[in-house]
Amino acid sequence: MSSSHAKAPYYFVPGPSKWPVLAGSSLLLTMLGASAWVNGLSWGSYANLAGVFLTLVVLYNWFGDAIAESESGQYSARIDVSYRWSMSWFIFSEVMFFAAFFGALFYARSITMPWLADLDHKVLWPDFSGQWGNAGPAGTIESFKTMGPFPIPTINTALLLTSGVTLTIAHHALRAGQRGKTAFWLFATIVLGAVFMGFQAYEYIHAYHELNLKLTSGIYGSTFFMLTGFHGFHVTMGAIMLSVVLFRVLKGHFTPDHHFAFEGAAWYWHFVDVVWLGLYVVVYWL
């Protein structure tokens, strides 16, 4: 977060906030509701939706307080450092999150498949080749076609790479004090992200109806949809973050020297870009 006003003394810290406790409580309600919902309990869906609603209310008010504190000059250099470390650790946790799914994909494709197709298992499954993208050796999965890199994944790659460029231009414009240019290129970045999500939605429709590729299509389907689906969720969250930043730019927030809210959202967006490059190569090409 940043302020257009004079910064507070280095060791100054704003008063305690009630929002972290309320956020934890609403998230707990959301997860309990989701667990009950998938297990067929009648109250689960209501609890889950109530938890989601309360979480959104808490985040709206929490971020509103943070913005108000920033714009009133309550954030010292110590708070700025705290935000940078917090965002860095958050992105690191996201790296580990995606590393788990990439690791599952590697294990299934490079270790499990060859193992199931070796000579020791030919007695059980003599016709199983172990080639990636199959329905498994047991014959319990409906046949499906795999997703290739053309044309939509390649178009989406170009969209995200371009969005990284437009966001960098917006950042340089903000540092140069060019607010109008900052808003234009930031808006262009958000539009590119929205177009990316539109293409991904179309890709999912194509996968379900024309390729018969579903989340239940064995290990290939589950890893494909978990990786691309969670990435799409992160693109959506990144676009929301950039939209909030754009709104603040239009309201006159930020200065060329103090604009960490912009920087934090930009870090997150570039992280999403890098994850997609890995997905594009590992999921669609290999």
From TrEMBL:
Family of this protein? Belongs to the cytochrome c oxidase subunit 3 family.
**PROSITE patterns recorded for this chain?**
COX3
Pfam families tied to this protein: COX3 (PF00510)
The record describes its membrane topology as: Multi-pass membrane protein
Q: Which UniProt keywords apply?
A: Membrane, Translocase, Transmembrane, Transmembrane helix
**What is the source species?**
Undibacterium griseum
- UniProt-recorded name of the protein: cytochrome-c oxidase
Might you give the EC number(s) for this enzyme? 7.1.1.9
Q: Which Gene3D superfamilies does this UniProt record tie to the protein? A: 1.10.287.70, Cytochrome c oxidase, subunit III, four-helix bundle (1.20.120.80)
* Annotated compartments: Cell membrane; Membrane
List each copy of the Heme-copper oxidase subunit III family profile domain by range. 7-286
Keyword Kinase attached: no
Q: Which residue spans traverse the membrane?
A: 46-68, 89-108, 150-170, 182-202, 222-247, 267-285
